[in-house]
Specification:
The complex is a heterodimer. By secondary structure, chain A is α/β, with parallel strands linked by helices. Chain A has 11 helices and 13 strands. In chain A, helix 3 runs parallel beside helix 4 and helix 10 packs antiparallel against helix 11. Chain B has one domain: Class I glutamine amidotransferase (GATase) domain (Rossmann fold, 3-Layer(aba) Sandwich), CATH 3.40.50.880. In chain B, the strands form 3 sheets. In chain B, strands 2-1-3-4-14-13-10-7-8 form a 9-stranded mixed beta sheet. A 3-stranded antiparallel beta sheet of chain B has the order 6-11-12, with no helix packed on it. A two-stranded antiparallel sheet of chain B has the order 5-9. The chains are: A alpha/beta, B alpha/beta.
């Protein structure tokens, strides 16, 4: 069957012919419809562009032991922030009792560089001590909560000892060393830390250098009086203060997580030193001795404490396993074991 | 220009415009690594930041020309329960504990000057206070009966041993008691020995944040007055020291200004080394170690202490403790002439005492 309707362009219909067939009203309607369709497509994008402010306050999280992985992340984030014109201010969300000296210094330098370009405010959560305090010291202001802990400006290191002669090494200091040289090296490490803190906050500390070097920690309420902190306030208040300092007006909060995804490493102290443990069931490669550390020692559990609680857990698990896998007679025995171990565990906890 | 050419030009112009625009936009919005501002951290470059770790030199010399004296050393029991391991360990051989060689500079000085150094190393059964059976002399008493001087780092003696030590002091024997801050807490009964020797031990430890020998606990001490013990000593270093006292004697060394006490966190001037006649008590034992003998004037102080030990009026043959008298009443059995501790070189020891010691 032949088509009855002319098909453009094969119809050879001229413009005059189109004008005559499509009325001006219809042309307007078609254009309006096309514009509406395009508008619907682009509207969400335009809405997002106008609704989202271009200014941001970046919140960089510095949590857990200060180590190489954390320093890598913090350096990277702060570098990215400095290159991002939409970020107008930075808040460091801090919760760490310190860690490795070099990692602390790396974060310290990164915060310094960022502070040259924009307002940086540190917001301490539970604790920012030792290497953590080192890292945040260049911030324009330090916010603490009333019971936050800050301070511990000093070095943890085992006492140097003169060693017996060791055969094999190429020089006397390759293995072992001289006790006096060891003391000098430790004191230089400690002075490096204290000097940096005096350079950053010497005019804020209301105490002499010797008192700062005692490495005490202070509650937030005391820290704002002695100059270890500037304001009592939460993270939100720190963010608002940072935005206000940069006249951001409307702003968004851009949170940057740092550090490893897992809860490791954890720090454990032995009688001699602090070690970083990188796994729950650590193998040889998961334990990292830290000969010297900028760490608040009271925040680091002793290995004996961990073993004691682990022993309670193990005995409880064994008792539970015995109860699950045996008859009534065995259950009574397992209960007895559990009852006997529970008070010991409670006593250990209260002690 | 014909129609195909027009269409081609239009295509090229449009394409070039779009790609060039994209290039300009990309260049303008490039988001690379921002240049890092340069920051001068002068505090890392301060000249006095690097602490001098030069170990130093020690030259322990004695001014006394006394003939051979016998000095008994009780190296004590390590806080962790490790016993003293005898003379070899004391001199740095055969034992893993560094503490066992702590007094080598003092021992060497005594040996080099012709004196006899004996080490009282109790066996396992005697490492803790234990009364001897009635009438039986203690091993320590037997050692002291033949000695002129006694150096001890131990405080947990039995009542019988304390009695022997007291008799030894009453019999003109010289005693050097070196304690540590930890001894106050870790070992039982130090007050008993203190009471026998009429000395006291303070609590906590002394530190100095402003001026110290590479660590706040390694405190400097200065002479309290001119004496035989302080002669030619400007400063001594006492690592981890506690304060000591004496009721009747004199303070010899006090910590320098700025020193504080750990228990009070307040300034302290309490002495670190005192002398009560024939007894010297010092609130530190590490200052005698080889590496610490090289610090400040510790070598001079050690030499002075060696002189103190060998300059005595004791005659072991005639003065207590005398093991033969163990069953009888304890007390002086011989002449106990007055000592003149401030001028040791003028106190000639009796020839009989020296002969007894060297004839061992």
């Amino acid at each position: 069957m032949l088509c009855r309707f002319p098909v453009w362009p094969y119809s050879g219909m001229s413009t005059d012919t189109l004008s005559s067939t499509v009325t001006p009203r219809r042309q307007i309607a078609a254009v309006v419809l096309a514009a509406a369709l395009l508008g619907v497509v682009f509207a969400p994008t335009v809405y997002g562009m106008t609704n989202e402010t271009s200014d941001a306050v970046a919140v960089v999280e510095i949590e857990g032991p200060v180590n190489t992985a954390l320093a890598d992340d913090v350096e990277s984030e702060l570098t990215s922030i400095r290159g991002n014109e939409s970020v107008g201010a930075v808040v460091l969300k801090i919760d760490t009792s310190g860690g490795a000296p070099v990692a602390s210094e790396r974060i310290y330098k990164a915060v310094q560089r960022t502070g040259e370009e924009m307002t940086v405010i540190a917001s301490v959560q539970e604790i920012s001590a030792s290497g953590g305090y080192y890292a945040m010291a260049p911030a324009d202001e330090i916010y603490v909560l009333p019971t936050s802990l800050v301070g511990s400006i000093g070095l943890n290191a085992p006492s140097p000892r003169t060693t017996s002669p060791i055969s094999g090494p190429s020089g006397p200091d390759k293995v072992g060393g001289n006790a006096i040289e060891g003391w000098a090296e430790r004191q230089t490490l400690a002075d490096t830390f204290v000097n940096a803190m005096m350079a950053e906050r010497g005019e804020t500390f209301r105490m002499p250098r010797e008192e700062v070097a005692k490495a005490d920690v202070y509650l937030g309420t005391e820290a704002v009086r002695n100059g270890f902190a500037d304001e009592i306030g939460s993270l939100n208040e720190a963010i608002h203060a940072a935005a206000t300092a940069e006249d951001l007006g409307d702003y968004r909060v851009d949170t940057r997580e740092t550090g490893p995804d897992s809860p490791f490493p954890i720090l454990i102290r032995t009688d001699q030193q602090v070690v970083a443990v990188h796994a729950n069931d650590p193998g040889y490669g998961d334990v990292e001795p830290m000969g010297v550390a900028y760490v608040h020692l009271d925040s680091v559990p002793h290995v004996d404490t961990i073993e004691r609680f682990s022993a309670d857990d193990i005995s409880a698990e064994r008792a539970g396993a015995a109860a699950d896998g045996s008859g009534a007679a065995d259950e009574s025995g397992a209960d007895g074991t559990t009852d006997g171990s529970a008070p010991a565990g409670a006593g250990g906890a209260s002690a | 220009m014909n129609r195909p050419a027009t269409l081609l030009v239009a295509f090229l112009v449009t394409f070039a415009t779009i790609t060039a625009g994209s290039a300009v936009a990309g260049y303008a919005t490039a988001d690379g690594t921002a240049p890092s501002p340069e920051i001068e951290n002068d505090h890392y470059l301060e000249e006095d930041l690097i602490n001098d770790g030069t170990p130093g030199q020690a030259d322990v010399t004695m001014s006394s020309d006394e003939s051979s004296q016998t000095v008994v050393v009780d190296p004590g029991v390590e806080a962790g329960g490790t016993p003293g391991l005898g003379l070899l360990a004391l001199l740095g051989f055969g034992g893993p504990d560094v503490a066992d060689r702590d007094i080598r500079p003092l021992a060497n000085a005594l040996i080099e000057n012709g004196h006899d150094v004996r080490v009282y190393a109790p066996d396992d059964d005697q490492r803790r206070p234990r009364d001897s059976p009635d009438g039986e002399p203690t091993t320590l008493g037997e050692e002291l009966a033949e000695a002129d001087a006694f150096v001890t780092f131990r405080t947990d003696y039995s009542d019988e041993e304390l009695e022997d030590i007291e008799s030894f002091v009453d019999g003109d024997g010289r005693v050097l008691l070196a304690t540590e801050p930890g001894a106050t807490f870790e070992q039982p009964g130090p007050a008993s020995l203190d009471a026998r020797l009429d000395v006291t031990t303070g609590t906590g430890y002394v530190y100095n944040m402003a001026e110290n020998d590479l660590n706040y606990q390694r405190v400097y001490a200065e002479p309290d007055a001119d004496s035989a013990l302080t002669a030619d000593v400007d400063r001594a270093v006492f690592p981890t020291a506690t304060t000591v006292g004496t009721a009747a004697g004199s303070a010899e060394f006090r910590p320098i200004a700025g020193s504080e006490l750990s228990t009070t966190r307040a300034a302290t001037e309490e002495p670190l080394l005192v002398r009560d006649d024939g007894v010297v008590m010092v609130g530190d034992s590490d200052f005698l170690s080889p590496e610490n003998a090289q610090r400040a004037d510790n070598d001079v102080l050690i030499g002075n202490l060696a002189d103190f030990l060998v300059t005595n009026d004791r005659n072991p043959a005639r003065q207590p403790p005398n093991t033969d008298d163990r069953a009888g009443p304890t007390g002086p059995t011989g002449p106990t002439g007055p000592t003149q501790p401030q001028e040791p070189t003028e106190n000639a020891t009796s020839a009989g005492g020296s002969d007894t010691a060297t004839a061992r």
